[in-house]
Design brief:
The protein is an alpha+beta fold and 257 residues long. The protein has one domain: 4-Layer Sandwich (Deoxyribonuclease I, Chain A). The protein contains seven helices and 14 strands. The chain has a six-stranded mixed beta sheet. A six-stranded mixed beta sheet has the order 5-6-7-8-12-9. It has a two-stranded antiparallel ribbon with strand order 10-11. A hairpin with a 2-residue loop joins strand 6 and strand 7. 43% of the residues are buried.
């Protein structure tokens, strides 16, 4: 059984000051997909992760302290692919992939469009290009787990106030439609596949006590190809972890990695 966690840590150095390593050891996942490390590996003491049993792979933005993704793995992957081959996204450190046999895990940090029209347009370009990239990747790597911060709530059940937020970046109709068509292209939203309950979120604003009131958004996902449906055993949100404005999500697949 492979236990895989995705976590937007909103700065790994900040998270580690909040006992993130102790939390990681207690959960003990086989693979950790991290987003927004906001760090280059030379800014960290990698021995800490090695002592916890992990090989670590980092794909950082050119700009210091921005974006950046990583994969930690108990087992050494057969191959690591850094980036998606599209310069404007790779410069921002948004995608890293680990291959294990015929199974691949991607740690992804999708752009946010909240800072204005220019970044919203960039986000929509990314979504279109990501679909093309995944379509191509599936030809050689058909068993995929796309983990990470997608920065989109898919349906009304995934956001605390769908009416007020209907035109907000992260819940715009065209973004939600993209998630629908991505799933239709051959993917399963593992959490919703197993859990139809409302009020399950993975991100809360730091403002107005949103987390305490559970006024959140579900924007972090484990998306699996349809080929892995029979391998899906568990998919849960770990809302008690408080190292970030996001919380981690965990998936268990009946696979050996």
């Amino acid at each position: 059984m492979a236990k895989i966690v995705t976590y937007n840590v909103n700065g790994i150095r900040a998270a580690m000051k909040k006992d993130w390593m102790e939390w990681l050891k207690s959960v003990d996942p086989d693979i950790v997909c991290i987003q927004e490390t906001k760090a280059h590996k030379e800014q960290l003491d990698l021995q800490v992760f090695e002592e916890a049993g992990y090989h670590t792979y980092w794909f950082s933005a050119e700009k210091k302290g921005y974006s950046s993704v990583a994969i930690f793995s108990k087992t050494k992957p057969d191959h690591i692919e850094y980036g998606c081959g599209i310069e404007k996204y790779d410069a921002e450190g948004r995608i890293i992939r680990a291959d294990y046999g015929d199974f691949s895990v991607l740690s992804c940090y999708f752009p946010s469009g909240t800072s204005g029209d220019e970044r919203q347009a960039f986000k929509m370009e990314f979504l279109a290009d990501f679909q093309t990239y995944i379509n191509e990747l599936k030809k050689t790597r058909p068993n995929l787990l796309v983990s990470g911060d997608v920065n989109i709530c898919h349906t009304e059940i995934d956001i605390h106030n769908p009416v007020r937020n209907k035109d907000t970046s992260g819940f715009k109709p065209e973004e939600r439609e993209w998630v629908s068509q991505f799933l239709d292209s051959g993917f399963i939203d593992s959490f919703r596949h197993l859990n139809k309950e409302p009020h399950n979120y993975t991100w809360w604003s730091y403002r107005a006590g949103a987390r305490k009131k559970n006024l959140g958004w579900r924007i972090d996902y484990h998306l699996i190809t349809n080929s892995l449906e029979d391998k899906l055993k568990r998919s849960v949100i770990l809302a008690d972890a408080v190292h970030s404005d996001h919380c981690p999500s965990l998936i268990e697949l009946d696979l050996k990695v």
